[in-house]
Design brief:
The protein has a single domain, classed as TIM Barrel. It contains twelve helices and eight strands. The chain has helices spanning 17-31, 45-54, 81-86, 97-103, 107-119, 132-136, 140-151, 157-162, 181-199, 201-204, 220-224, 241-248, and strands at 6-10, 38-42, 61-64, 91-94, 123-128, 164-167, 208-212, 231-234. Strands 1-2-3-4-5-6-7-8 form an eight-stranded parallel beta barrel, surrounded by five helices. Helix 7 (140-151) packs across helix 9. It binds 2-phosphoglycolic acid.
Amino acid sequence: MSRRPILAGNWKLNLTVRESLELASAVRDKCARHRDVDVVVAPTHLALHAVAQRLADSPVRVAAQNCHWADQGAFTGEISPAHLADAGVAWCIIGHSERRQFFGETDDGVAKKARALHDRGVLPIICVGESLDQRDAGQTLSWVTGQVKAALAELTADEAAVSVVAYEPIWAIGTGRTASPEQAQEVHAAIRATLAELYGRAIADRIRIQYGGSVKPSNVKTLMAQPDIDGALVGGASLTADSFAGIVAHRAED
Ligand code: PGA
């Protein structure tokens, strides 16, 4: 089963609107020749609309880093899936460990966001991952597959098929410490087995599972060589066009 790779840059709380536009243009230009992969960039909310306009005629798609599940209402400070769709945003990262850790994101909230995004035609990138303590305690697979089940609880099989799951071990995010390809593959395979339990093998085989956590041009190839790793969610190394393009180009170097 060949799945189209999806490489996404999570810019987190970095870059002004002007800097975001510059990086978006550079990513578009440097990645234009890589037609066999999906390329996504995730600027801050403030830059989403401008970046989506800048990239409108390119294959590079835009993701938000978070949203609320309601379309509108008395939710000060939030933005909604309806707003994202209106701004030309194709994807939305939900359940990132930084949001779970610092902003109280719960499995239940992630499930509601996944549901609401699909209702507006914005596709979720659903993040899951274990802490170092959980890994050391041998809880990685049960924890991560539990997060996957919870996040997808309100989606149909067809909706799940076009969603993306991002496995991001918390201990590998921003630490320079990457999961080994074997460690990552073990968890990706367990996630796919869980997806097969939920939706059947044919759907599970379509769902793309990204790895995230200190992905760089130098390690992306061995990660992507694993059978169940279908892409990368990249933080630090997505902040310059050269290093992100080096990740996007992982196949071209063969
Ligand atoms: P990192 O971040 O690549 O800087 O480790 C990944 C992420 O948080 O998505």
